[in-house]
Write a structure and sequence with these properties.
heterodimer, A: mainly beta, 7-stranded mixed sheet, 4-stranded antiparallel sheet, B: 109 residues, 6-stranded mixed sheet, 5-stranded antiparallel sheet, 0% helix
């Protein structure tokens, strides 16, 4: 099942670039999430949106900027990233915040 | 916040063997999920199991909420079972899942 779709799957960007990650869910869910998975570390929550309102911002640097224009779409805008931001970025959705979550395929980001 | 510990961190099996993965958590939970992360990074839902027992083919899971642990059983393992298995929980008013560090499973042919 690919109820949550992320694009692009892979992204290489320079430190001065601006790019965006996109997430789309087709499950009729009301909550969406961004998680970050760095090498050898557990998944870390970045942002939570519930009914298109940001309800959690887990001390994420301002070079990461989320946007949730509607309950089906979630973006992560990236600018002036650092090499240590290289990671797998995973989007998820659930029917309600803290409900059963379903994840997209992830975007593997490399900052050079 | 809630703490999640998974054991063992690494597990190597011969094809056909059975295994048990454990997840301990430090507080009462209202959501507990088991995931399998495939080699391409995607998290595949295995079980949504805040309490009780469920089975799906060769996989089964049990959560004993009062004792704050969950077990994932894999029977007759196959090479395609290889990957990282994560336990994730949410507790109280938390809106997100907290993940354990995972168990890296390698099934040898």
């Amino acid at each position: 099942e690919t109820g949550v779709t992320q694009t692009p799957r892979h992204l290489v960007m320079g430190m001065t670039n601006k790019k965006s990650l996109k997430c789309e869910q087709h499950l009729g869910h009301n909550a969406m999430y961004w998680y970050k998975q760095s090498a050898k570390k557990p998944l870390e929550l970045m942002f939570v949106y519930s009914l298109e309102e940001r309800v959690e911002n887990n001390s994420v640097p301002s070079r990461f900027s989320p946007e949730c224009p509607n309950s089906s779409h979630l973006f992560l805008h990236l600018h002036t990233l650092q090499p240590e931001d290289s990671a797998l970025y995973l989007c998820a959705s659930s029917r309600r915040a803290s409900g059963e979550a379903f994840f997209g395929q992830g975007t593997r980001l490399t900052v050079v | 916040g809630i703490q999640v510990e998974q054991s063992p961190p690494d597990l190597i099996l011969q094809e056909g063997a059975n295994s048990t993965l454990r997840c301990n958590f430090s507080d009462s939970v209202n959501n507990l999920q088991w995931f399998h992360q495939n080699p391409w990074g995607q998290l595949i839902n295995l079980f949504y199991i805040p309490s009780g027992t469920k089975q799906n083919g060769r996989l089964s899971a049990t959560t004993v909420a009062t004792e704050r642990y969950s077990l994932l059983y894999i029977s007759s393992s196959q090479t395609t079972d290889s990957g990282v298995y994560f336990c994730a929980v949410s507790s109280g008013s938390a809106r997100q899942l907290t993940f354990g560090s995972g168990t890296q499973l390698t099934v040898l042919p």
